[in-house]
Design a protein that fits this description.
Blueprint lengths: L11 E6 L13 H10 L4 E4 L16 E10 L8 E6 L11 H10 L3 E4 L2 H4 L3 H6 L5 E6 H7 L5 H9 L5 E5 L18 E6 L4 H10 L2 E4 L4 E7 L2 E9 L1 E5 L5 E5 L5 E7 L6 E7 L5 E3 L3 E2 L2
Parallel strand pairs: 1-2, 2-3, 5-6, 6-7
Antiparallel strand pairs: 1-8, 3-4, 4-5, 8-9, 9-16, 10-11, 11-14, 12-13, 12-15, 15-16, 15-17
Protein backbone atom coordinates (compact mmCIF):
# COMPACT_ATOMS: atom_id res chain seq x y z
CA UNK A 1 0.00 0.00 0.00
CA UNK A 2 1.24 3.48 -0.88
CA UNK A 3 -0.44 6.57 0.53
CA UNK A 4 1.28 9.68 1.89
CA UNK A 5 -1.36 10.22 4.58
CA UNK A 6 -1.65 13.97 5.30
CA UNK A 7 -3.50 13.25 8.55
CA UNK A 8 -0.57 11.48 10.17
CA UNK A 9 2.60 13.10 11.46
CA UNK A 10 3.50 16.71 12.10
CA UNK A 11 2.65 19.67 9.91
CA UNK A 12 0.29 22.57 9.28
CA UNK A 13 -2.71 22.86 6.98
CA UNK A 14 -2.62 25.56 4.30
CA UNK A 15 -5.43 26.42 1.89
CA UNK A 16 -4.69 27.56 -1.65
CA UNK A 17 -5.75 28.01 -5.25
CA UNK A 18 -3.43 26.85 -8.02
CA UNK A 19 -5.07 28.25 -11.18
CA UNK A 20 -5.81 31.98 -11.49
CA UNK A 21 -5.87 34.63 -14.23
CA UNK A 22 -5.48 38.41 -14.05
CA UNK A 23 -5.51 41.37 -16.44
CA UNK A 24 -2.04 40.26 -17.56
CA UNK A 25 -3.95 37.71 -19.67
CA UNK A 26 -7.75 37.34 -19.74
CA UNK A 27 -8.79 38.01 -16.13
CA UNK A 28 -10.80 41.00 -14.91
CA UNK A 29 -8.69 42.03 -11.88
CA UNK A 30 -5.14 43.34 -11.60
CA UNK A 31 -2.64 40.88 -10.07
CA UNK A 32 -2.37 42.84 -6.82
CA UNK A 33 -6.15 43.06 -6.38
CA UNK A 34 -6.50 39.35 -7.15
CA UNK A 35 -4.02 38.52 -4.40
CA UNK A 36 -5.85 40.76 -1.93
CA UNK A 37 -9.20 39.15 -2.72
CA UNK A 38 -7.85 35.66 -2.09
CA UNK A 39 -6.20 36.64 1.17
CA UNK A 40 -9.43 38.30 2.35
CA UNK A 41 -11.22 35.02 1.57
CA UNK A 42 -8.90 33.15 3.92
CA UNK A 43 -6.40 31.64 1.50
CA UNK A 44 -2.81 30.97 2.56
CA UNK A 45 -1.27 30.64 -0.90
CA UNK A 46 -2.08 31.47 -4.50
CA UNK A 47 -0.65 30.67 -7.91
CA UNK A 48 -1.34 33.29 -10.59
CA UNK A 49 -1.16 31.35 -13.85
CA UNK A 50 -1.71 33.82 -16.67
CA UNK A 51 -1.65 32.50 -20.24
CA UNK A 52 1.92 32.47 -21.51
CA UNK A 53 3.12 34.88 -18.82
CA UNK A 54 4.89 34.54 -15.49
CA UNK A 55 3.06 37.20 -13.46
CA UNK A 56 4.80 38.53 -10.35
CA UNK A 57 3.00 40.28 -7.49
CA UNK A 58 5.69 42.51 -6.05
CA UNK A 59 3.95 43.27 -2.75
CA UNK A 60 1.48 40.49 -1.86
CA UNK A 61 -0.78 40.92 1.17
CA UNK A 62 0.62 39.78 4.49
CA UNK A 63 0.10 36.07 5.06
CA UNK A 64 -0.36 35.10 1.40
CA UNK A 65 2.39 33.03 -0.20
CA UNK A 66 2.69 33.42 -3.98
CA UNK A 67 3.61 30.34 -6.03
CA UNK A 68 5.09 31.26 -9.43
CA UNK A 69 3.09 29.75 -12.28
CA UNK A 70 1.94 29.94 -15.88
CA UNK A 71 -0.70 28.31 -18.10
CA UNK A 72 0.29 27.22 -21.60
CA UNK A 73 -1.77 25.84 -24.47
CA UNK A 74 0.30 23.43 -26.54
CA UNK A 75 -0.05 20.69 -29.15
CA UNK A 76 -3.22 19.02 -30.34
CA UNK A 77 -5.39 16.32 -28.80
CA UNK A 78 -7.17 13.57 -30.76
CA UNK A 79 -10.11 15.97 -31.12
CA UNK A 80 -7.84 18.78 -32.32
CA UNK A 81 -7.92 20.96 -29.20
CA UNK A 82 -4.73 22.07 -27.40
CA UNK A 83 -3.50 20.67 -24.12
CA UNK A 84 -3.86 23.23 -21.33
CA UNK A 85 -1.04 22.80 -18.82
CA UNK A 86 -0.29 24.75 -15.65
CA UNK A 87 3.35 24.90 -14.56
CA UNK A 88 4.02 25.58 -10.87
CA UNK A 89 7.26 26.54 -9.16
CA UNK A 90 8.83 27.86 -12.36
CA UNK A 91 11.35 30.67 -12.89
CA UNK A 92 10.87 31.47 -16.57
CA UNK A 93 8.14 31.38 -19.20
CA UNK A 94 7.79 28.39 -21.48
CA UNK A 95 8.20 28.52 -25.25
CA UNK A 96 4.93 28.55 -27.22
CA UNK A 97 6.65 26.48 -29.91
CA UNK A 98 7.51 23.45 -27.77
CA UNK A 99 5.50 20.23 -27.62
CA UNK A 100 3.41 19.36 -24.56
CA UNK A 101 5.75 16.50 -23.66
CA UNK A 102 8.89 18.59 -24.06
CA UNK A 103 7.34 21.31 -21.89
CA UNK A 104 6.63 18.77 -19.15
CA UNK A 105 10.23 17.53 -19.33
CA UNK A 106 11.66 21.06 -19.22
CA UNK A 107 9.60 22.14 -16.22
CA UNK A 108 10.23 18.90 -14.34
CA UNK A 109 13.98 19.11 -14.98
CA UNK A 110 14.02 22.54 -13.31
CA UNK A 111 12.11 21.32 -10.26
CA UNK A 112 8.64 22.52 -11.27
CA UNK A 113 5.32 20.68 -11.32
CA UNK A 114 2.86 20.22 -14.18
CA UNK A 115 -0.92 20.08 -13.85
CA UNK A 116 -3.15 18.77 -16.64
CA UNK A 117 -6.00 21.28 -16.73
CA UNK A 118 -9.74 20.61 -17.08
CA UNK A 119 -9.59 17.46 -19.28
CA UNK A 120 -13.40 17.27 -19.63
CA UNK A 121 -13.67 20.89 -20.77
CA UNK A 122 -10.73 20.35 -23.16
CA UNK A 123 -12.34 17.26 -24.70
CA UNK A 124 -9.36 15.04 -23.95
CA UNK A 125 -9.61 11.30 -24.55
CA UNK A 126 -8.04 8.54 -22.47
CA UNK A 127 -5.41 8.21 -25.21
CA UNK A 128 -4.55 11.89 -24.80
CA UNK A 129 -4.23 11.43 -21.04
CA UNK A 130 -2.00 8.37 -21.41
CA UNK A 131 0.17 9.74 -24.22
CA UNK A 132 1.34 12.65 -22.07
CA UNK A 133 3.64 11.61 -19.23
CA UNK A 134 5.13 13.37 -16.23
CA UNK A 135 2.27 15.55 -14.95
CA UNK A 136 1.85 15.17 -11.21
CA UNK A 137 -1.88 16.01 -11.04
CA UNK A 138 -5.00 16.78 -13.02
CA UNK A 139 -7.85 19.10 -12.18
CA UNK A 140 -10.63 16.92 -10.84
CA UNK A 141 -12.74 20.07 -10.40
CA UNK A 142 -12.50 23.47 -12.10
CA UNK A 143 -14.83 26.26 -10.94
CA UNK A 144 -14.77 28.28 -14.16
CA UNK A 145 -15.47 25.22 -16.32
CA UNK A 146 -18.36 24.32 -14.03
CA UNK A 147 -20.03 27.73 -14.06
CA UNK A 148 -19.39 28.53 -17.73
CA UNK A 149 -20.37 25.31 -19.54
CA UNK A 150 -21.12 22.69 -16.87
CA UNK A 151 -17.92 20.72 -17.49
CA UNK A 152 -16.12 21.30 -14.20
CA UNK A 153 -15.76 17.70 -13.04
CA UNK A 154 -13.14 15.40 -14.56
CA UNK A 155 -13.55 12.51 -12.11
CA UNK A 156 -14.13 9.97 -14.88
CA UNK A 157 -10.89 11.02 -16.58
CA UNK A 158 -9.07 10.61 -13.27
CA UNK A 159 -10.46 7.11 -12.74
CA UNK A 160 -9.59 6.11 -16.30
CA UNK A 161 -5.97 6.99 -15.56
CA UNK A 162 -5.88 5.38 -12.13
CA UNK A 163 -7.43 2.15 -13.41
CA UNK A 164 -4.61 1.93 -15.95
CA UNK A 165 -1.92 2.25 -13.32
CA UNK A 166 -1.08 5.94 -13.63
CA UNK A 167 -0.36 7.54 -10.26
CA UNK A 168 -1.77 11.03 -10.56
CA UNK A 169 -3.10 13.31 -7.82
CA UNK A 170 -6.34 15.32 -8.05
CA UNK A 171 -6.74 19.09 -7.59
CA UNK A 172 -9.75 21.35 -7.17
CA UNK A 173 -9.05 24.80 -8.61
CA UNK A 174 -10.85 27.99 -9.55
CA UNK A 175 -9.25 28.89 -12.89
CA UNK A 176 -10.53 32.27 -11.71
CA UNK A 177 -10.99 35.16 -14.14
CA UNK A 178 -13.36 37.00 -11.76
CA UNK A 179 -16.10 36.69 -14.37
CA UNK A 180 -19.76 36.61 -13.36
CA UNK A 181 -23.14 37.49 -14.80
CA UNK A 182 -26.93 37.32 -14.32
CA UNK A 183 -26.92 33.55 -14.81
CA UNK A 184 -23.31 32.80 -13.83
CA UNK A 185 -21.87 32.98 -10.28
CA UNK A 186 -18.42 34.40 -9.64
CA UNK A 187 -15.75 31.94 -10.75
CA UNK A 188 -13.60 32.37 -7.62
CA UNK A 189 -13.39 30.72 -4.19
CA UNK A 190 -15.16 27.58 -5.43
CA UNK A 191 -12.41 24.94 -5.48
CA UNK A 192 -9.16 24.68 -3.53
CA UNK A 193 -6.59 22.34 -2.03
CA UNK A 194 -5.85 21.78 1.65
CA UNK A 195 -2.15 20.99 1.86
CA UNK A 196 -0.36 19.49 4.84
CA UNK A 197 3.06 21.17 4.98
CA UNK A 198 6.11 20.90 7.23
CA UNK A 199 6.28 24.72 7.36
CA UNK A 200 4.69 27.84 5.92
CA UNK A 201 6.83 28.34 2.79
CA UNK A 202 6.52 28.04 -0.99
CA UNK A 203 9.09 25.25 -1.02
CA UNK A 204 7.20 23.23 1.57
CA UNK A 205 3.92 23.66 -0.36
CA UNK A 206 5.47 22.46 -3.62
CA UNK A 207 7.07 19.54 -1.80
CA UNK A 208 3.75 18.53 -0.23
CA UNK A 209 1.90 18.86 -3.54
CA UNK A 210 4.40 16.59 -5.26
CA UNK A 211 4.17 14.02 -2.46
CA UNK A 212 0.35 14.14 -2.48
CA UNK A 213 -0.13 15.20 1.15
CA UNK A 214 -3.27 17.20 0.46
CA UNK A 215 -6.94 16.87 -0.35
CA UNK A 216 -9.13 18.85 -2.75
CA UNK A 217 -12.40 20.51 -1.81
CA UNK A 218 -15.29 22.73 -2.83
CA UNK A 219 -16.55 22.95 0.76
CA UNK A 220 -16.51 19.76 2.87
CA UNK A 221 -13.59 18.84 5.10
CA UNK A 222 -11.79 15.58 5.72
CA UNK A 223 -10.73 15.49 9.37
CA UNK A 224 -9.12 12.04 9.55
CA UNK A 225 -8.17 9.11 7.37
CA UNK A 226 -6.83 5.74 8.47
CA UNK A 227 -5.58 2.81 6.43
CA UNK A 228 -5.07 -0.61 8.02
CA UNK A 229 -4.36 -3.32 5.50
CA UNK A 230 -7.19 -2.92 3.00
CA UNK A 231 -9.55 -1.21 5.45
CA UNK A 232 -9.98 2.52 4.85
CA UNK A 233 -11.73 4.78 7.36
CA UNK A 234 -12.52 8.49 6.93
CA UNK A 235 -14.00 11.16 9.18
CA UNK A 236 -15.47 14.31 7.66
CA UNK A 237 -17.46 17.44 8.34
CA UNK A 238 -21.24 16.73 8.13
CA UNK A 239 -21.96 15.43 4.62
CA UNK A 240 -24.78 13.77 2.75
CA UNK A 241 -22.73 10.94 1.27
CA UNK A 242 -19.28 9.34 1.45
CA UNK A 243 -18.14 7.22 -1.48
CA UNK A 244 -15.14 4.91 -1.81
CA UNK A 245 -14.29 4.67 -5.50
CA UNK A 246 -12.11 2.05 -7.16
CA UNK A 247 -11.83 0.59 -10.63
CA UNK A 248 -14.76 -1.07 -12.43
CA UNK A 249 -17.63 -1.90 -10.07
CA UNK A 250 -15.58 -1.95 -6.89
CA UNK A 251 -16.17 0.45 -4.03
CA UNK A 252 -18.86 1.46 -1.56
CA UNK A 253 -21.24 4.39 -1.06
CA UNK A 254 -22.64 5.55 2.28
CA UNK A 255 -25.80 7.66 2.57
CA UNK A 256 -28.50 7.76 5.24
CA UNK A 257 -31.73 9.31 4.01
CA UNK A 258 -32.70 12.36 6.04
CA UNK A 259 -29.44 12.47 8.00
CA UNK A 260 -25.87 13.58 7.54
CA UNK A 261 -22.75 11.48 7.97
CA UNK A 262 -19.45 12.20 9.67
CA UNK A 263 -17.60 8.92 9.09
CA UNK A 264 -17.52 5.81 6.95
CA UNK A 265 -15.26 2.87 6.19
CA UNK A 266 -14.64 0.38 3.43
CA UNK A 267 -12.83 -2.93 3.10
CA UNK A 268 -11.18 -2.59 -0.29
CA UNK A 269 -11.58 -5.89 -2.16
CA UNK A 270 -8.62 -8.01 -3.16
CA UNK A 271 -7.57 -7.24 -6.70
CA UNK A 272 -8.44 -3.55 -6.48
CA UNK A 273 -5.35 -1.49 -7.25
CA UNK A 274 -6.54 1.78 -5.71
CA UNK A 275 -9.32 3.51 -3.83
CA UNK A 276 -10.10 7.19 -3.40
CA UNK A 277 -12.77 8.84 -1.28
CA UNK A 278 -15.21 11.61 -2.19
CA UNK A 279 -17.68 13.17 0.22
CA UNK A 280 -20.56 15.45 -0.79
CA UNK A 281 -22.48 17.82 1.47
CA UNK A 282 -26.22 18.68 1.31
CA UNK A 283 -25.40 21.70 -0.90
CA UNK A 284 -23.87 19.39 -3.52
CA UNK A 285 -20.28 20.44 -2.84
CA UNK A 286 -17.64 17.72 -2.80
CA UNK A 287 -14.18 17.00 -1.43
CA UNK A 288 -11.74 14.39 -2.72
CA UNK A 289 -8.87 12.49 -1.14
CA UNK A 290 -5.93 11.45 -3.23
CA UNK A 291 -5.90 7.79 -4.26
CA UNK A 292 -4.57 5.08 -1.98
CA UNK A 293 -2.64 2.55 -4.05
CA UNK A 294 -2.42 -1.17 -3.28
CA UNK A 295 0.21 -3.51 -4.67
Amino acid sequence: MRYPNPFKGDGIWLRGNLHTHTTVSDGDLEPEETAVRYREAGYDFLAITDHGRLTVVEDPPEGLLMIPGEEVNLGRSEAGSPFHLVALGIHREGSPETSPQDFVHEVSAEGGLIVLCHPYWSGLSINDLLDLEGYFALEVFNTTCHYSVGKGSSEVHWDELLARGRRVWGLAVDDAHFHSGPHRPLDAFGGWVMVRCRERSVGAILEALKEGTFYASCGPKFVDLEVEGRRVYVATSPVESITFISENGRGSRWEVEGNTLKEAECEVPEGASYVRVVCTDPEGRSAWTNPIFFG
